[in-house]
Amino acid sequence: MGRIKTKPKVSSLVLTVVALIIGITCIFPFIFMISTSFKFNAYVFEFPVRLIPKPLNVANYPELFSGKYYFGRWYFNSVFAMFVTIVLKIPICGMAAYSLARLKYKGRNLIFILLMTTLMFPNDFKVIPQYVVFSALHLTNTVWSVTANMIFEFFLVFLLRQFFINIPMELTEAAKIDGYGHVAIFYKIILPLAKPALATMLIFTFTWQWNDFQSPFIFINDTKKQLLTVGIASFASLRASNYTLQMAGTTIGLVPAFLVFLALQKYFIEGLAAGAVKG
Amino acid sequence: MKKTSFLTANRRESITGYVFILPYLIGCVIVNFLPMIMVVLISFTNMKYVTLRISNIKFVGFRNYDRVFHDHQFWMSMLRTLYYSAVYIPLILVVGLALALLINSKIYCRNGIRTLIFIPYVSNIVAVAIVWNIMYSYNNGIINMTLKNFGVKNPPMWLVGNTGIVIPSIVIVHVWVSVALFFMTYLAALQDIPEQLYEAARIDGASKTQSFFRITIPMLSTTNFLLLITAIITSMQNFSIVTNLTKGGPGDASTTQSIYTYNEAITYKHMNTGSSQIVIMMIILLAITLIQKRGQKKWEE
Questions:
Q1: Whose CA is closest to B254, among B179, B178, B138, B174?
Q2: d(CA A224, CA A73)
Q3: Does A273 touch chain B (CB under 8 A)?
Q4: What is the pLDDT of residue B256?
């Protein structure tokens, strides 16, 4: 018995070390990024790599916001686009999911199937067609062009619909007897129950919107209106040799997504698992 | 009396249903359906760039398609996409499964390590590309310096090499960024396999390798199939990562179909032929989806 007990412990220890090495490999580029952002350019390619910079350079971060670049502007634009997306996506998609899950009307299944087909075409195929429509509607270079894709994305509506379906129908029936209308049932009964699903929706929306490169890259060509992701990319190609300043920029760009992920990772992982089951 | 009130309740439910779906539906039509319809229409015209002066636009039948079919560069870009997928798909499935098996085994601080694996997934592609570009640097990047330290005389050119090496280099970064989804799906599937199966096998004297190949792999077949389709589609979604890592270069060594079509339609202002390319890709994607549907039925049987 004792032998069996100690044996898994040793193998567990070995496997933990292997897993830890892999985990560190996963985040090494980010550690390297942060450490480089505190170096002088002459030390970027030093080998072996010094993760604690010596000599230390703290001038990069103030420089980014010094007004020489549009960095603060891009940051503001990204935050603003995020605000618009969340404020519109949560009610619009919440209502749509509720309608598809819990209200009966003619044509509902047809609408659902039509919306499902939008999942089939990945963004790479959609952006150029969208460019056509957005240019014709004069939506390029506006906040709508970089938020519309995220607001009307269907995957999260689908997840929310699944969640709504699983809430017992008796709740609605009981509320009706109490004299509630459909709108009141939605706001006062269903939405409060759906908090975990809404949290999943929120964190995915945040991550995807904050990290989106493609929409701003294609729909925005005015530097002042650019979002942070594309802004950093253009900034990097203009200052190709100033690696440490680029690293400071990318680090600041990553912070919000990392913080939100660490705070809400439970919902993130649950959402991913739920989506994966469906495919 | 009773019957009419029942009817109005039904009507009220219908009206609420339509009103609730309407804002989403309008947006979805503008964002998804209208663009697709426009692109199909444009692919049959001589429209070079987006304009509302419709008087100059003529229908030209299949001429754009004819041009695309005879465009050697387009087929080269398709081949590069194919190569990209051929490297990406097996790699992401194997790495995803290996990570899931590792995390599913008896290890310490499992959740902490799982979080580390997720970090690349929630980062943005611009940051990833900038830091990997520095690490991949041919002369003095950390990867080649390490290889040289281990005695490798001619380390790879990575992102500045020819097609043979530049595409796998991009794929490595792509796998690193996107593996969390595959890892998580495999992990969920592994945790769904009933523990009794392994116990029964152990009682019957099966070795660990035997139960892996006789229980784990067959139990994962649905997941494998699902992730295979996801991998195919993810591998075709390479516009952002290629743009940021190499811009399709050096030369056109990493100009995949998505980059080529973007250049054609937007950079060179050939919206018509660009649209034909998109329609061709849409048809290919449709075919993949149909195969998926048939395959799904087969698995479910």
A1: B174
A2: 7
A3: yes
A4: 93
